[in-house]
Design goal:
With 253 residues, this protein is an alpha/beta fold. It has one domain: NAD(P)-binding Rossmann-like Domain (Rossmann fold). 43% of the residues lie in helices and 13% in strands. It is built from seven helices and six strands. It has a six-stranded parallel β-sheet with strand order 3-2-1-4-5-6, sandwiched between helices. It is globular. The structure holds NADP nicotinamide-adenine-dinucleotide phosphate. The site of NADP nicotinamide-adenine-dinucleotide phosphate (NAP) has 32 residues, from helix 1, strand 2 and helix 6.
């Protein structure tokens, strides 16, 4: 598997030579960790010294990545399936010993090729909503106890819901995806207000157009050279998360 960074289980010091804010001992769970932005985030957080668990459906790719990026915990599961959420939750908390950061990154485009709403099967809309809205809602809800505990301990707690400009702009052909991301954005804002007293932050972040398999599937004619590297987006997203967390000493595992 081609990895965006050299890895080898190295745990970075709090501020490494590249200027990254280190995250030793930070416990991070990332959905959709085997491709695109999610893969770059797994490598980015591991390079910063975090303890990382990641989720994706393809068990072989999950196992391979967990071998390639030493010290990460791979979890095979489908976040769009209600019955998968508790097994995923138990594995996340069991393997990390708690949770400080959840990144809801896994996503479905809905119909592919992209389709006008009138040509979209109900099942394709259901899949986009199940993956992009209900999955993040259920997983966040199931992990709230662990996140709130982390906040109470002064470690901080952050949920990032990865959104898109399609959540804001009504692009023709992006109806299922755009509606699901718009709902995710609104959910994030409300949840952020509701959880403020618990010390849990809920952020929604649009990573920008990136050179990933999802983008290639959606817009096959795009020149990849015009797109953002997932590694760049991962670094920006990790910086935003580190800024949202309190500065504190965490026990490096
Ligand atoms: N690429 C862009 O230009 C762009 C722009 C704006 C926003 N975004 C957002 O950025 C995020 C990452 O996108 P990407 O382009 O990196 O996607 P990607 O390359 O297609 O990767 C998607 C990842 O999610 C996993 N996944 C998909 N469905 C899943 C499910 N039901 N349960 C668990 N894992 C699942 C995939 O692995 P399996 O198939 O093995 O499950 C894979 O690891 C998404 O939220 C997307 O909406 C992307």
């Amino acid at each position: 598997m081609g990895l965006p960074y050299k890895t080898g289980g190295r745990v970075s010091s709090p501020a490494d030579a590249s200027g990254r804010a280190g995250a030793p001992g930070l416990r991070v769970a990332i959905t959709g960790g085997t491709s695109g932005l999610g893969l770059a985030l797994v490598c980015e957080f591991r390079a910063r010294g975090a303890e990382v668990a990641f989720v994706a459906r393809d068990g072989e790719r999950v196992a391979q990545l967990a071998r390639d990026v030493v010290g990460t915990h791979g979890i095979a599961g489908d976040i769009a399936k209600k019955e998968a959420i508790h097994p995923i939750t138990l594995q996340v908390v069991g393997r990390l010993g708690g949770l400080d950061v959840l990144v809801n990154n896994a996503s479905s485009l809905g119909p592919t090729p992209l389709a006008l709403l009138a040509d979209t099967e109900c099942e394709a809309l259901e899949l986009a909503l199940a993956t992009n809205l209900l999955g993040p809602f259920r997983l966040t809800k199931a992990l709230l106890g662990a996140l709130a505990a982390s906040a109470r301990q002064g470690r901080g707690a952050v949920v990032v819901n990865v959104t898109s400009d399609a959540a804001i702009t009504a692009y023709k052909g992006w109806g299922a995806y755009g509606a699901s991301k718009a709902a995710l954005l609104h959910l994030s804002r409300i949840w952020n207000d509701e959880l403020a007293d618990e010390g849990v932050r809920v952020l929604s972040i649009d990573p920008g157009d990136m050179d990933t398999p999802l983008h290639a599937l959606a817009v096959p004619d795009t020149d990849p050279a015009t797109l953002k590297r997932p590694t760049t987006a991962a670094r920006e997203l990790a910086d935003a998360i580190m800024t949202a967390l309190p500065a504190c000493e965490r026990d490096a595992g």
